[in-house]
Amino acid sequence: MTSSIAKELAKGQRAISVAEFFEKNRHLLGFANKAQSLLTSVKEAVDNSLDACEEANVLPDINVELKEVKKNRFKLIIEDNGPGIVKKQIAPIFGKFLYGSKFESIGGKQSRGQQGIGISSVVLYAQLTTGKPTIVISKTSPKDEAHKFKIHIDTKTNEPEIVNAETSEWMKDHGTKIEFEIEAKYQESKQSVPEYIKETAVINPHAKITYVGPDNKKLEFPRVSEKLPKKAKKIRPHPHGVELGILKRMLKATTARSLKSFLTKEFDKVGSGTANEIVKKSELDPKILPRLLTGEQMEQLLNAVQDTKIMNPSMDCLSPIGAEILKNSVEAEYDIDFVHAITRPTTVYRGMPFQIECAIGYGGSLNPEGRVGLMRFANKVPLLYQQGACAISKAVSDVNWKSYGLQQSSGSLPNGPAVILVHMASVWVPYTSEGKEAIASYPAIIKEIKLAVQECGRFLQRYVSKKKKAAFEAAKKEKFKGYAQELAIALSKLTGKPMEEIHKKITEIADTKFSKFEEELDEMEEKSKVKPKEELEEEEESEEVEQNGNNYQ
Question: For 275-330, what is each residue's pLDDT tens digit?
Fold first, then answer.
């Protein structure tokens, strides 16, 4: 009886492709509703464009256009000036899940995408909601013709279906243009396309982005920096980020002929001395062929690795924005009186290197009564959804903001005329889901975010304190001046000197006595302002030389 049931069940069992899985579970990729789906579609396409331009050492010039076809249906067009895509790669890049060079199970380098899912998920969403193929036009050089493809995805096989392929006239020298027709809902809110474009411009100050919405209103975000960010370099995995299953796979795949050479060849920051120490602690033969290790011996090796002090991973796998450029970028997009930014040193979680950057802007036209604006970023990508589930929100809320000059209810974001920006740069950001909308709350990450925010907060507190003091002294000065006329008259009667002369002297004394607070406040505001581009570029070059001479933290 049970045997026949098992046979019947077996008839219905089959392997499914990753495309077929996401066809039924698109909410996991950020397509939970029509408003979020629109934002996710824009995000994935813009991320691809930025990555392509940076890989080709081209300053990004990106155009985003959104046209309403009919109610809840839009045409989304994204065009860039990147290197373009060779003909044979166009279909698989857009029509196949888990295709590309971004995925690294461990090690790797900082990049916007991590799984090789992004842009193909938008192609699938367009296909599911409108039945329309995605149109891709790409050109790799001025002397070549552009290639135009219309693409679907065969979800059963996770392979691209080319509806049509032809050459096309296109005036650009090189680049890629993508057109999707999708079901979507357009809204003006914190979680909107314009807000995403604005935050993308803030965190990518080297990019020029133009956006045209359904109302034909154009928003232009010019470049703040003419210098491309430092290019991240791929690194080998760090030993402290390896788990048993990964170690087993690495041991089976290595070409190393001994355990010691395996450690020095396959891992970052493991030299001959460190390898000897690990082997000694593991009590294994340093000359054993790695693929011959038993399961028990693998565990011995892993325990020895975890018990050995190893230098932090290499820094050059990361590409932070830099404090000065970040400060310039925030000032360029917001009307504020004060801004301070920092970049924290590199640190690790689970053997993964990461850096936290933070900026705080204050005053100007920011709302003095409402909650501060919190901008969350991971690898230069805005995170607009799942704010409450994000490590950044948790860390910022845990800070005692009253000591830094802002109002706050217990365990919540502060209130006041401020904007707080936090950016995590990492070879592997621990997102809470495939939709890449929030960062998981690892203790090491929470700690670094709080340290960064608190450091910026100390500069904010000094500014706010000086501002309050200056306002208080200004009020005293005006009150003193109010009595100056009567005092001058009385002193004139006592001394016989002209009243006008005495009044002038009293006013000069008041200006001298109370001006120092205003001068200190002006000096703080001036220091927080944008530096001239020439001065900034000199500092960037100096920082780059310093970083090249210091390869580990």
Answer: 999 999 999 998 899 999 999 999 999 999 989 998 877 778 899 999 999 999 99
Q: Taking phi first (over 0 means left), then psi (-120 to 50 degrees means alpha), and beta for anything else, what does residue 62 get?
A: beta
Helices 323-333 & 533-548 angle (0-180, nearest 10): 150
d(CA 70, CA 365): 37
Nearest to 92 by CA among 126, 114, 119, 113: 119
Phi-psi region of 291 (alpha: psi -120 to 50; beta: other; left: phi over 0): alpha
> Could you tell me whether strands 418-426 and 218-221 are parallel, antiparallel, or unpaired per DSSP bridges?
unpaired
With beta carbons less than 8 A apart as the criterion, state whether 198 and 211 touch: no
Q: How far apart are CA 19 and CA 92, in angstroms?
A: 13
CA distance 457 to 511: 31
pLDDT 10s digits, 157-168: 889 999 999 998
User: Residue 70 forms beta bridges with which residues?
Assistant: 73
Confidence of residue 268 (pLDDT cuts 50, 70, 90): confident
What tokens were used for 433? Answer: 């889901």
Interatomic CA distance for residues 135 and 149, integer angstroms: 6
- Is the separation of the CB atoms in 46 and 28 below 8 Å? no
CA–CA gap between residue 371 and residue 247 (Å, rounded): 47
Is pLDDT at 424 greater than 80 in this prediction?
Answer: yes
Is residue 546 very low, low, confident or very high in pLDDT (cuts 50, 70, 90)? Answer: very low
Q: What is the pLDDT of residues 21-43, one digit of tens each?
A: 777 778 777 788 898 899 999 99
Q: Are the C-beta atoms of 127 and 140 separated by less than 8 Å?
A: no
Tell me the sheet residues that pair with 221: 209
Give Cβ neighbours of residue 353 (< 8 Å, ≥ 6 apart): 235, 238, 312, 313, 314, 315, 317, 318, 346, 347, 426, 427
Calpha distance 18→117 (Å, rounded): 10
Residues contacting residue 179 through CB under 8 Å, at least 6 positions apart: 75, 76, 77, 134, 135, 136
Contact 163, 91 (CB under 8 A): no
- Please report how many Cα atoms fall inside a 13 Å half-sphere around the Cα of residue 407, on the Cβ side: 8
pLDDT over 70, % of the chain: 84
Calpha distance 443→437 (Å, rounded): 19
Structure token pair of residue 533: 């581009």
Mean pLDDT of the chain: 84
Q: Token pair of 154, please?
A: 């065969």
Q: pLDDT at residue 532 above 50?
A: no
Burial 470-506 (b: 16+ CB within 10 A, else e): beebeeebeebeeebeeebeebbeeeeeeeeebbeeb
Distance CA 71, CA 76 (A): 14
Give the DSSP per-residue string, 95-114: HSTT-SS---SSSB---S-S
Domains of the chain: 18-221 (3.30.565.10), 239-306 (1.10.8.50), 323-460 (3.30.230.10), 464-548 (no CATH)
